[in-house]
Amino acid sequence: MKWIPFILIVLFSTVILLRPTLYDMDSYYFASLACHYAPIRPDSEAALTEILFTHLPCSFMVFKSILIGIFTICMIIIYFIGRYLNKKYRHWMILLFGASLSFYSYFAKFEDDTLGLPFVFLSLYFLVKWVKEKQWYDFFWSLFIASVGFFVWKGMAIWILIVLASSPITWIFSGGMLYYFREKIISFQYGSVAEQIPLAGVLSNALILPGMFTVPIYLIPSISLAFMLAMVHLKYSLFFGLLCAIGLYSYLCQHDFFEFDERKVLGLPKQKALFIILFMISIAGLTAFYSSPPTKDTVDFVRDASRQVNATGNNLVYTDWEFGHLIQFYGMVPSNQFGPPNHSFAHVKGYVITHQLIHCNELRRLEDVRFYYCD
Q1: Do residue 313 and residue 259 come from a single domain?
Q2: Distances in whole angstroms, Cα of residue 344 to Cα of each of 311, 323, 354
Q3: Boundary-marking domain end, from 229, 261, 288
Q4: Are residues 309 and 333 in the same domain?
Q5: Share above pLDDT 70 across residues of the chain, in percent, rounded to a whole number
Q6: How far is CA 316 from the centre of its chain?
Q7: Taking a C-beta distance cutoff of 8 angstroms, is the pair 45, 51 a contact?
Q8: 163-192: per-residue pLDDT in tens?
Q9: How many CA atoms lie within 13 A of 159 on its CB side?
């Protein structure tokens, strides 16, 4: 059991290093910043973070090394959270976190969200101490770390709300901030985007959902808020899953569920069967993003198209929203990059990369991705 953190770090590193492309299209936007293919957006809420990315070397190996480093740091923090709550069963904490189906994918994206994760987990450590010991300095440490993380990832504003909700004295601040950011937090304008499919964030935590009902009483307002937010946006499911894992781990430790006994599950001793199930879920989560979009064929398709487009001197490409960041990474100028997903090419003139069937000259095709020239 003591080798679990090390094994998971090695597996994560192996998958990240062997994957031929970056995981998720958003990663290519931040890679474009590092490689100076994309300008910093002055109106962006993440402008400071974008400046940070521009100082990184333009190297996939550097990008992947950063992801591995962040994952390692967070695994260490999770280990100490489990050790603080119950020293005897501390190794189970990591497996319960990994039972969230989207847990490992958060660490695989090369973006500002991922840079903010160490702040989330370190803040969580002090939040757990605050809930257990009721020492105000732990509460303020949790809040301070989350506030520092806000300058790295603006999504930390949600975590700050959740931390504030853990104390009756600061409920009014949490409620006020929730009201102030309501339009940015709850947005259905891109309903076809996977992150904003209702209930997706809750369902991704289905295996540890019982932890919602076993959290310490001080965390009930926090997990209730996290639950509501996870209902409307998959990105917020991370915060909900962390609190569910804490609640479930605390409950199982209190009832010595991890203690070895003769009861059988699937023909194996209960503890061994539970370990195998949770470990296999972690393996599935770690390897799921290896073949996830964008695939190497898709990246190569866009790269080859870029050579033809850039040779003309007019590098504007009309495209679906999902290809925008990847097109920019290869030196082209996408017509559609930050939304909305649906885009009409009825009257365009020039190059087009899209999933849609349109009445133009098809230059190349990869399954359902098409490269056109419209005149």
Answers
A1: no
A2: 25, 15, 10
A3: 288
A4: yes
A5: 88
A6: 30
A7: no
A8: 998 888 887 777 777 777 666 665 544 444
A9: 32
Q: Are 336 and 321 in contact (CB under 8 A)?
A: yes
**Strands of 333-334's sheet in order across:** 333-334, 316-319, 350-354, 369-374, 361-366
Based on the structure, what is the number of domains in the chain? 2
Residue of 357 and 337 predicted with greater confidence: 357
**One-letter identity of residue 287:** T
| Concatenated DSSP letters of 280-311 | HHHHHHHHHTTSPSSPHHHHHHHHHHHHHHHT
State whether 262 and 301 are in the same domain: no
Res 115 pLDDT > 80: yes
The answer to whether residues 217 and 364 belong to one domain is no
Last-in-domain residue among 268, 288, 308: 288
For 120, 162, 237, the CA distances from 176, given in Å and listed in that order, are: 21, 12, 22
Residue 190: the pLDDT is 44
Burial class (CB in 10 A: 0-12, 13-18, 19+), 279: middle
Helix 156-164 and helix 237-254, axial crossing angle in degrees, nearest 10: 40
* Residue 334 tokens, joined: 């996408």
Radius of gyration over alpha carbons of the chain, in Å? Answer: 22
> What rounded mean pLDDT belongs to the chain?
84
For 1-17, write each residue's pLDDT tens digit.
678 888 889 989 999 99
Q: Which residues contact 75 (CB under 8 A, 6 or more apart)?
A: 5, 8, 9, 94
Tell me how far apart the alpha carbons of residues 89 and 213 are, in angstroms, rounded to a whole number: 21
Q: Are 4 and 274 in contact (CB under 8 A)?
A: no
Residues 70 and 197 in one domain: yes
Q: Above pLDDT 90, what percent of the chain?
A: 39
Alpha-carbon distances, residue 333 vs 63, 310, 327, 336 (angstroms)? 23, 10, 7, 9
Q: Are 178 and 185 in contact (CB under 8 A)?
A: yes
Q: Are residues 353 and 246 in the same domain?
A: no
Phi, psi values for residue 269, rounded to 5°: -55, 145
pLDDT of 141 over the 90 cut: yes
Which domain, by its residues, includes 340? Answer: 296-374
